[in-house]
Design brief:
CATH topology of the largest domain: Isopropylmalate Dehydrogenase
Oligomer: single chain
Order of helices and strands: EHEHHEHHEHEEEHEHEHEHEEHHHH
CATH superfamily of the largest domain: Isopropylmalate Dehydrogenase
Protein name: 3-isopropylmalate dehydrogenase
CATH class of the largest domain: Alpha Beta
Structural class: alpha/beta
Strand order of the largest sheet: 2-1-3-12-11-4-5-10-8-9
Function: Catalyzes the oxidation of 3-carboxy-2-hydroxy-4-methylpentanoate (3-isopropylmalate) to 3-carboxy-4-methyl-2-oxopentanoate. The product decarboxylates to 4-methyl-2 oxopentanoate.
Catalytic activity: (2R,3S)-3-isopropylmalate + NAD(+) = 4-methyl-2-oxopentanoate + CO2 + NADH
Bound molecules: 3-isopropylmalic acid, magnesium ion
Largest sheet: 10 strands, mixed
Strand content: 15-25%
GO biological process, one term: L-leucine biosynthetic process
Distance between the termini: 22 Å
Helix content: 40-55%
Main location: cytoplasm
Shape: globular
Radius of gyration: 20 Å
Number of domains: 2
């Protein structure tokens, strides 16, 4: 099959981890006989430096013409420490999500047996955890109008807005995912306080009739924040709005002890985007020490979600598991064993796929 992949390495360690994913994707292409073409674009702080725009039109054109986007990371301390900066790398990310129609962010949490002891939770609570968040990504308070300040600058406001249609399309993805998994869907909202949340709950209740095989639970976001830590194994598929999802998926990412390993996908239209959930880690940039596995696993998600190639995805997961079992890992998880360089891990994974 022919596959056109847009590469957006971004900032910090982004270029290094993307380079390893490319090695792995090329190896998979060679092994399974796919014709893969890569095109690279600028996004984030590096795009601002080069063009003044964190998501230049040229980058959007590359993405829109591709089948899938592999994204590294964005962010630079020079912007984080300047709240008055007019152009910010994050604006590029939000505009990209909106322009590509990526309304669903899929963030799984699962455990790796060799790393589960690194979880901040007790082993028996977390061993075997396997749930996935479907976070709404192009609506809610991130995009709602009006937003801003009053004339004196002494009051600020953001607006949380959802249409029924936005809830329906996200919820359907959650229901369909639950049907393929353990058939449990949790709708996370704040329906005891917020009008938007009541629309979410009412809409999900209506849809539930179409998915009789899926058990639906409704929980308030504050309770979920607590229960994710207490009983993470109680969850299967969770659906939620943009801001709640932003917060809870960061919480979820540390539960398994493998924050550096968690991949994610953003779906919604023809072009799908895949990225590690970690950030740009500027302190490590250029040192060849960053852990590339989350990006490599994001490439595995790409094969599964963008190309419906389960075998290819599995081949990547298998070699990642092998690298963990054999200790071919970067310093963050080497635990006294040999610490491999980012590039060495990528080379090893690619060679194993072909081997
Ligand atoms: C994420 C990030 C972004 C978000 C930031 C960088 C704008 O935290 O992808 O979760 O809030 O969506
Ligand atoms: Mg976030």
């Amino acid at each position: 099959m022919e596959m056109n992949i847009a590469l957006l390495p971004g900032d910090g360690i982004g270029p290094e981890v993307i380079a390893q994913a490319v090695k792995v994707v090329k190896a998979v292409g060679q092994k399974f006989g796919h014709q893969i073409t890569f095109k690279e674009g600028l996004v984030g702080a590096c795009a601002i430096d080069a063009t003044g725009d964190p998501y230049p039109d040229a980058t959007h054109e590359i993405c829109a013409a591709s089948d899938a986007v592999l994204f590294g990371a964005i962010g630079d301390p020079k912007y984080d420490n300047d709240p008055k900066a007019k152009v910010r790398p994050e604006q590029g990310l939000l505009r990209m999500r909106q322009k590509l129609g990526l309304f669903a962010n899929v963030r799984p949490t699962f455990t790796f047996p060799s790393l589960v002891h690194k979880s901040p939770l007790k082993l028996e609570r977390v061993d075997g955890v396997d749930f996935v968040f479907f976070r709404e990504l192009t609506g809610g308070v991130y995009f709602g109008e009006p937003r801003g300040r009053n004339e004196q600058g002494t009051k600020a406001f953001d607006t949380n807005v959802y249409s029924k249609e936005e809830v329906v399309r996200l919820a359907r993805m959650g229901f369909e995912a639950a049907q393929k998994r353990r058939k449990l869907l949790t709708c996370v909202d704040k329906a005891n306080v917020m009008a938007t949340s009541r629309l979410w709950r009412e809409t999900v209740q209506e849809l539930a009739a179409e998915y009789p095989d899926v058990k639906v639970e409704y929980e308030f976001v504050d309770a979920v924040a607590m229960r994710l830590i207490q009983w993470p194994k109680a969850y299967d598929v969770l659906i939620t709005e943009n801001l709640f999802g932003d917060i809870l998926t960061d919480e979820a990412s540390v539960i398994s002890g493998s924050m550096g390993l968690m991949p994610s996908a953003s779906l919604g239209s023809k072009v799908k985007l895949f990225e590690p959930i970690h950030g740009s880690y500027p302190q490590a940039a250029g040192k060849d020490i960053a852990n590339p596995l989350a990006t490599v696993l994001s490439a595995a998600m790409m094969f599964e979600y963008a190309f419906d190639m389960k075998e290819e995805a599995q081949a990547i997961s298998d070699v990642v598991n092998l690298s963990l079992a054999e200790g071919v890992v970067t310093e963050d998880i080497a635990e006294g064993g040999k610490a491999y360089k980012t590039s060495e891990v990528g080379d090893w994974l690619a060679a194993k796929i072909l081997g």
